[in-house]
Every structure is written in structure tokens, then in C-alpha cells.
Design goal:
single chain, about 140 residues, alpha/beta, Rossmann fold, 5-stranded parallel sheet, 6 helices
Length: about 140
């Protein structure tokens, strides 16, 4: 199973996701692929323990095609989000991928998600990892 973690900016959310996934999910055959919109984000996720890393728009497009699970802040599915680092092509790749998407409801960059509790990042990361673990268990 390939879990693609996508992040932008400094990769802080992606770094936390990768670290939590690698700590909690130690199933054979599970690879964590860090995809940053920039090299800083990719580097942060690699330092957190991602198995592989790739950077830029084409990396997002290619990795979304091969992902089983895509995880990241909700902005990865919204064109021009994350201060413009998510291109329309990237958002379309995330949205049209056959992968399961686990999106963290971050209220940033003029995108406000209503109807969900304003949970701290640690709680959101924990819930995302729980969802990934459930998907892995279901596929076995």
C-alpha cells in the first residue's frame, strides 16, 4: 500500500503526519511517499521518516495516480490554496485520484471548513492515522 503525504509551505503538517504514520503503522508492504510542493516541504517530510520523496507539480500528478491513500491538509484539493502553492492541476490530481483521500480540515488561506470541530493539529493527525490504519486493516 502506498500512502502519499502531500504538503506545501514548510511541510509542518506533512512532517507530523509522516512521523505519526511511521510510528503507528508498521505493516509490511506499506510505503510512505512524501510529496512537497517545494523542496523545503519534501525535506521536512523525509527527515520525519518518509520512505521516498518527490517535489513539485509533476510529482503530485504522478504520485496521485499510484497512491492508495492520499493524506494532507484540505487545501491540497483546492486550486490556489496554501498561499498559491496548489496549482489547479495539483488539486485536480488529488480530487480525481482513485485513492482514498484523508484531508485535515485546516482553516487557512481563506478556506473555512464549517461543521467540524476546531480541533488542534495533534488530534487531527491522530484521527488521520486511525483512518489510515482502518483502511490497511480492511484491505488485508
Amino acid at each position: 500500500m502506498t500512502i502519499v503525504v502531500i504538503d506545501a509551505q514548510g511541510g509542518g503538517i506533512g512532517k507530523q503526519l509522516v512521523a505519526a504514520i511511521k510510528k503507528e503503522i508498521q505493516s509490511p508492504g506499506v510505503e510512505v511517499l512524501a510529496v512537497g510542493t517545494n523542496s523545503l516541504a519534501t525535506s521536512a517530510m523525509l527527515k520525519a521518516g518518509a520512505d521516498h520523496g518527490a517535489t513539485g507539480e509533476n510529482a503530485v500528478l504522478a504520485c496521485c495516480r499510484r497512491a492508495d491513500v492520499i493524506v494532507g491538509p484540505i487545501g491540497i484539493a483546492i486550486a490556489d490554496a496554501l498561499w498559491g502553492e496548489i496549482s489547479p492541476a495539483m488539486a485536480a490530481a488529488v480530487g480525481s485520484s482513485p485513492a482514498k483521500r484523508i484531508l485535515l480540515p485546516m482553516n487557512h488561506c481563506d478556506n473555512i471548513v464549517v461543521g467540524v470541530s476546531n480541533l488542534n493539529t495533534g488530534v487531527l493527525i491522530r484521527e488521520a492515522v486511525e483512518q489510515i490504519a482502518a483502511l490497511i486493516a480492511r484491505d488485508r
